[in-house]
Amino acid sequence: xxxxxxxxxxxxxxxxxxxxxxxxxxxxxxxxxxxxxxxxxxxxxxxxxxxxxxxxxxxxxxxxxxxxxxxxxxxxxxxxxxxxxxxxxxxxxxxxxxxxxxxxxxxxxxxxxxxxxxxxxxxxxxxxxxxxxxxxxxxxxxxxxxxxxxxxxxxxxxxxxxxxxxxxxxxxxxxxxxxxxxxxxxxxxxxxxxxxxxxxxxxxxxxxxxxxxxxxxxxxxxxxxxxxxxxxxxxxxxxxxxxxxxxxxxxxxxxxxxxxxxxxxxxxxxxxxxxxxxxxxxxxxxxxxxxxxxxxxxxxxxxxxxxxxxxxxxxxxxxxxxxxxxxxxxxxxxxxxxxxxxxxxxxxxxxxxxxxxxxxxxxxxxxxxxxxxxxxxxxxxxxxxxxxxxxxxxxxxxxxxxxxxxxxxxxxxxxxxxxxxxxxxxxxxxxxxxxxxxxxxxxxxxxxxxx
Length: 451
Hints:
This protein has helices at 13-25, 63-67, 130-140, 153-164, 185-197, 244-248, 295-307, 341-347, 396-408, 413-417, 435-450, and strands spanning 2-3, 6-9, 31-35, 72-75, 78-82, 87-90, 95-97, 100-103, 107-109, 123-124, 145-149, 168-173, 201-204, 208-214, 216-222, 227-229, 232-235, 239-241, 272-274, 281-282, 289-290, 324-329, 332-338, 351-359, 371-379, 385-392. The radius of gyration is 23 Å and the shape is globular. It is an alpha/beta fold. 45% of the residues are buried. Helices cover 25% and strands 27% of the residues. The chain has a five-stranded parallel sheet with strand order 4-3-2-8-19, with helices on one face. It folds into three domains: 2-108 and 240-307, FAD/NAD(P)-binding domain; 123-237, FAD/NAD(P)-binding domain (3-Layer(bba) Sandwich), CATH 3.50.50; 324-450, FAD/NAD(P)-binding domain, CATH 3.50.50.
């Protein structure tokens, strides 16, 4: 029997972070990471394998990240966990004893049971699997018409990338606009307009009835009765937690199918932790269960788990998920943190919103200047920031992270309004009209007048 102090199952983002941070803070302990793939792709980079990157080999998590940290790697599939004896067994019969176990099992693509034709040839999903992705790309080379079902982040990014290499791409989304599950309507509409201008056919407000074809897919029949021709179909309808191993090992799941964990990412068994897409998520604002699956969230959970492996820290806790997303279509980026205006109202918050459109460099005549639109959502009575959205250039991702930081630290709109910021013509919006601060100003003025 092999033995290790800490065993991590899963080699994607959360598994790597849990292993490397854990080893850094517990250098006297042995860490072993078991994964079922020889090479692991960077999850967020998968869409770009279809166009911007030359091949999947340019999108791999580097082995050196683990080996340089002193983490051992084993290729294999864990098929059972004996909680009482603290032993995991792999498919080849190898037994591995452990003191602490971190489950970083990830997620798997969702395929609706009702969808007729999902088993036809040339119907694909987008898993975190290098070999499978390579097969899709090889197949698509000789095909012309690709229909993507789902207008969320994966559907939009994969669709835009496939469009870049000369395929006719149609995205089908049942909601009124693409990305509308994540953004307010005005941002979603902007994204949709840009995607269309780049040559992608977007069909919104219409669901899929079935996939048609004889052994191989040839079309997509919509609820409206319209049939789209298709040489290939990609199902981008979301993901589900990969928790089969945990469930059959007696580890409790919540009603949404995620592994139940506390603020320290521990399961009911204090020696078994879970992080990433397989682990339970709760809203930072309301405490309700969420199905958010983000690499940023997964890595935050992994850090918490690693820091609390052998002793708990009252200040190193995971206090809930703040959905922080960003994406790029062409040269325009979109970011969102916290709740949207629509969701805030649905949840019953009394809110004030403010939006300001400026530019991300100054003066505007500089090459590469992009408009920058910032929208903030604030709790009316307290002024606490609970959400924000950004449309802009390459700085959008970090500005969205800044808004997420403000939300997590329960900062008020006044904190933004009185903030000291550094600016530079080539790097930021002008100090005289910094969109984030101007949006805060609009909100504070509204609250001031009404008070």
